[in-house]
Specification:
Number of helices: 3
Shape: rod-shaped
Order of helices and strands: HHH
Helix content: 55-70%
Strand content: under 5%
Number of strands: 0
Distance between the termini: 61 Å
Oligomer: single chain
Largest sheet: none
Structural class: mainly alpha
Length: 50
């Protein structure tokens, strides 16, 4: 167990990390946008050009 005898709550020293924090990262959003555009281009190609 972590030492909490200093009087500080260790949960308040770290900012909470969750799904919204992960999605707010620019590299992840760029990666997801590129994947989404590739999927969109593939689906448009399959639907309208084949």
């Amino acid at each position: 167990m972590p030492d909490t005898s200093r009087g500080q709550n260790p949960a308040t020293t770290k900012e909470p990390r969750g799904c919204l924090f992960a999605l707010s990262q620019p590299p992840l959003m760029i990666f997801l946008a590129v994947i989404g555009v590739l999927l969109l281009m593939a689906s448009v190609h399959d639907l309208f050009l084949l």
